[in-house]
Amino acid sequence: MNEIVIRGARLYGEGDPVDVHVADGTIATIGEAGAVTPGEDAEVIEARGQVLLPGFVDLHTHLREPGREDTETIDSGSAAAALGGYTAVFAMANTDPVADNAVVVEHVWRRGREVGLVDVHPVGAVTVGLKGEKLAEMGTMAKSVAGVRLFSDDGHCVADPLLMRRALEYSTALGVVVAQHAEEPRLTVGAQAHEGERAARLGYTGWPSSAEESIVARDCVLARHAGARLHICHVSTTGTVDVLGWAKGLGIDVSAEVTPHHLLLTDERLATYDPVNKVNPPLRAGADVERMRRALADGVIDCVATDHAPHAVQDKDCEWAAARPGMLGLQTALSIVAETMVRPGLLDWRGVARVMSERPAEIAGLPDQGRPLAAGEPANLVLVDPDAEWTVRGAELASVAANTPYEGMRLPAVVSATLLRGRITSREGKIG
Ligand SMILES: NC(=O)N[C@@H](CC(=O)O)C(=O)O
Ligand SMILES: [Zn+2]
Ligand SMILES: [Zn+2]
């Protein structure tokens, strides 16, 4: 029997420390500190009052396998996830070949199981080849071994309203969710940076906020008429928060995520011309960042998703216009949330559990993730040292690529241990 005792942890960072006894993949008992007598073979994790939370769930990860294993693999990305406190991740479909059929999604799912560090759920493409022309066989992917429950053309917007309408109608029938990368392509031709004063001064073509907001508004209306659930990827503007508030007020079944980088970084970063700061949607203005934080705190934005996007040196260390958009996120997400939400008092640790574990698990319909910390529940857990700090070094992260915008930054909160179904997947910054 595989037994672990987490000694002296504070559940959700609240109350007195308790002992959590894990056996056979589930939480067996939770008792007063010192009350649990583990078996002789039990592994003991000394928590010393650290914060115990349900394992994190990332609705938006790019693992790059198949096709760009020079930047990330399911192996390396799973390691980054485990080290970041994640017990489940959703791997986006913009791979090569595209995950628009059962063969590719089953490969990703199987490879994730073999690696075994985190539950890897493949996201299925909405349209064939992400081309936005013809619906992919969503039903076949949903019914495959991979059991796809999230569909997205992420990297591209499903821009054709008729295709989006059909995708939402199918998703309702299949009981799955469509996640939209909201970017009206006609409004972002040649766009390089957030449209505003800074982009104008630096000579970059602007990416207007309205390109995001117009699609979010349109899709909320389409979801309402289709009676469908809709998820919005990487929300980045105040106007999108306004639209989401309006839609939720009407009872439209829409959920939304924000990335850690849109909670912290602004377009002030662009002054250096360093493409490590290039991302889609672009880093926005300070007022947008402020609004992202408030919307996450009050629930208009449901959850945090990393949009972990590894890129090769040659695709990042080049002139701005030629660089690929995207940044690493799995190993820094918790710390950025601690810095932007916990430190300023916008969220407590129970709130962190909500936005990084419970809500994403609910949105994707995962029955065994984001569960309460209680006896009988699956032991998908993360132990966080809230008082520790660390310095980010891209070269030391588990990802193959190293494109972190937080290089050299000192950040709060360290993942001490991650458990997947009662097995230690990371401990003290090391795998397993
Ligand atoms: N976010 C990004 O800037 N890039 C993502 C695609 C995406 O999420 O739109 C990527 O795949 O690199
Ligand atoms: Zn996207
Ligand atoms: Zn993405």
Automatic annotation (TrEMBL):
Q: What class of enzyme is it?
A: hydrolase
Tell me the residue numbers annotated for binding Zn(2+) 2: D154, H181, H234
Q: Which reaction does it catalyse?
A: (S)-dihydroorotate + H2O = N-carbamoyl-L-aspartate + H(+)
Q: How is the cofactor bound?
A: Binds 2 Zn(2+) ions per subunit.
| Cofactors demanded by this protein | Zn(2+)
What's its EC? 3.5.2.3
Pathway recorded for this protein: Pyrimidine metabolism; UMP biosynthesis via de novo pathway; (S)-dihydroorotate from bicarbonate: step 3/3
For the Dihydroorotase catalytic domain, which residue ranges apply? 49-237
Keyword RNA-binding included in the entry's annotation: no
Task: Respond yes or no to whether keyword Metal-binding is given for this record.
Answer: yes
> Where along the chain is the active site annotated?
D307
Which Gene Ontology BP annotations are present? 'de novo' UMP biosynthetic process; purine nucleobase catabolic process
Q: Which GO terms describe its molecular function?
A: allantoinase activity; dihydroorotase activity; zinc ion binding
Q: Which keywords describe this protein according to UniProt? A: Hydrolase, Metal-binding, Pyrimidine biosynthesis, Zinc
Which Gene3D superfamilies does UniProt cross-reference here? Metal-dependent hydrolases (3.20.20.140), Urease, subunit C, domain 1 (2.30.40.10)
Q: Which residues bind substrate?
A: H62, L63, R64, N94, N280, H311, P325, G326
HAMAP family registered for this protein in UniProt: PyrC_classI_B
Spell out the PANTHER family in the cross-references.
ALLANTOINASE
Q: Which family does it belong to?
A: Belongs to the metallo-dependent hydrolases superfamily. DHOase family. Class I DHOase subfamily.
Q: What is this protein called?
A: Dihydroorotase
Q: Which organism is it from?
A: Prauserella flavalba
Lineage at the top is: Bacteria, Bacillati, Actinomycetota, Actinomycetes, Pseudonocardiales
Q: Which gene encodes it?
A: pyrC
